[in-house]
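Design request, tokens follow.
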């Protein structure tokens, strides 16, 4: 026979205490956790966007400086002349002004090298990407290459040289080290794991905040997870990269380059994770206390009731000489004890009357 489970006083006390204690506590934790998570998310996003703006501003300012210098140089009559003997002194002085530049040179529309500031032999440049970009009508040609002398990424900028009739008579190009840009990127830190990554137009690494992630110069990052995350260019987004959860923000720069700022999720949300751990500990401790209180109250309630039940059972069996110690209590159990005591007296009187009649 299957016995039906019934809730006793202990179960009811335990359920009541758990409900009264945990429901408000869990509700408060849920509401507070959501508010804290929203606030922390806003702070993390603001920090990433602010860092992005700072790094992008530094890169764009450096780039604008070079473009202005080249634009001013292309307006000079000696440069427009496309004669090496007139161009070279200007190229030498201009190149010396910008210490990150290691070569300035001019090229005819057919790709023939005319002037250079290093005194080297003329070199054909007709097949170079930056030259072709300008010849095809772009206002600026760009190409990131590996410097032959430094072995590190270098940038070549090219701008058109036009005469008074706006006819293209040549191309001015400047090769420069990316030391300043690399320093801007590598010096960017957000906590312990936050860093910046700068990629060229073909997603080759120009600079990376974590040098250990770059195995070769101009490493191809086309398959990098962040580049495939939807919406990451609109707002900081959470995604998985190299088996770790990160939050990142990406922006396309005017140069066609891609700038990415990312930080490990666990570090960014460390405060929230700590709050959740502490909340879980608090709930667990509260449950343990509630169970302890329920056991204490359950025993305090059930022990005298069980004693009275046993006494009532004795009375029902005709054992009228019983001792009821709970009659002195002033609560409901005391009232029940006194009622059972009166019942015992009544049974005794009734039995005495029956004996007399017999």
């Amino acid at each position: 026979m299957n016995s039906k489970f019934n809730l006793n006083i202990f179960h009811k006390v335990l359920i009541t205490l758990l409900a009264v204690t945990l429901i408000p506590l869990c509700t408060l934790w849920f509401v507070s956790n959501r508010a804290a998570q929203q606030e922390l998310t806003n702070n993390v996003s603001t920090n990433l966007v602010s860092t992005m703006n700072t790094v992008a501003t530094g890169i764009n300012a450096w780039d604008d400086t070079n473009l202005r210098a080249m634009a001013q140089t292309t307006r000079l009559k000696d440069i427009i002349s496309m004669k090496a003997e007139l161009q070279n002194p200007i190229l030498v002085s201009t190149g010396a002004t910008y210490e990150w530049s290691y070569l300035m040179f001019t090229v005819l529309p057919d790709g023939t090298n005319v002037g250079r500031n290093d005194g080297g032999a003329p070199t054909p440049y007709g097949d170079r990407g930056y030259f072709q970009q300008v010849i095809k009508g772009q206002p600026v040609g760009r190409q990131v290459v590996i410097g032959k002398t430094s072995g590190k990424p270098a940038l070549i900028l090219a701008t058109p040289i036009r005469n008074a009739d706006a006819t293209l008579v040549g191309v001015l190009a400047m090769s420069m080290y990316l030391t300043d840009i690399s320093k801007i990127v590598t010096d960017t830190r957000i906590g312990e794991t936050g860093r910046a990554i700068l990629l060229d137009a073909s997603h080759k690494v120009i600079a990376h905040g974590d040098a250990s992630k770059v195995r070769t110069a101009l490493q191809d990052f086309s398959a990098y997870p962040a580049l495939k995350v939807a919406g990451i260019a609109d707002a900081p987004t959470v995604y998985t990269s190299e088996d770790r959860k990160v939050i990142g923000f990406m922006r396309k720069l005017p140069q066609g380059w891609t700038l990415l700022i990312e930080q490990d999720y666990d570090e960014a949300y460390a405060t929230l994770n700590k709050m959740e751990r502490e909340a879980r500990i608090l709930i667990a401790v509260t449950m343990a206390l509630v169970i302890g209180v329920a056991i204490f109250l359950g025993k305090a309630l059930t022990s005298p009731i069980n004693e009275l039940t046993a006494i009532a059972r004795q009375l029902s069996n005709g054992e009228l000489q019983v001792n009821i110690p709970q009659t002195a209590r002033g609560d409901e159990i005391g009232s029940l004890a006194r009622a059972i005591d009166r019942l015992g007296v009544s049974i005794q009187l009734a039995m005495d009357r029956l004996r007399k009649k017999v």
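Comment from the thread starter after seeing the answer: thanks! The longest helix spans residues 9-74.
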